[in-house]
Amino acid sequence: MRVSDFWRLMDDEFGEAYSRTLARELVVDRLGDRSAAEALAAGADPKTVWQAICAAQDVPRERWLGRDITPRT
Question: Which InterPro entries match (predicted)?
């Protein structure tokens, strides 16, 4: 997963404004007691960060993959 995919998933799940606040403010134990923004800045895998956010926020597992996107042709 790319960092851009992480932000797309965050925006889709939490809304653009709240996703940025959540990424900065929510400290997640699965990320070494860091926020998502801190973990990403330290080089953490975006997929791992996304899954940690989902678990911490009780996002249903069926939404962990995000919405379906039509491929560009």
Answer: DUF3046
What pTM was computed for the model? 0.87
Query: Residue 71 has what pLDDT?
Result: 66
Q: Which residues of the chain have pLDDT under 70?
A: 68-71
The span from the CA of 18 to the CA of 29, in Å, is 20
Other CB atoms closer than 10 Å to residue 67's CB: what's the count? Answer: 9
| Three-state SS at 29 | helix
Backbone phi and psi for residue 3, each to the nearest 5 degrees, phi listed first: -60, -35
Residues contacting residue 25 through CB under 8 Å, at least 6 positions apart: 35
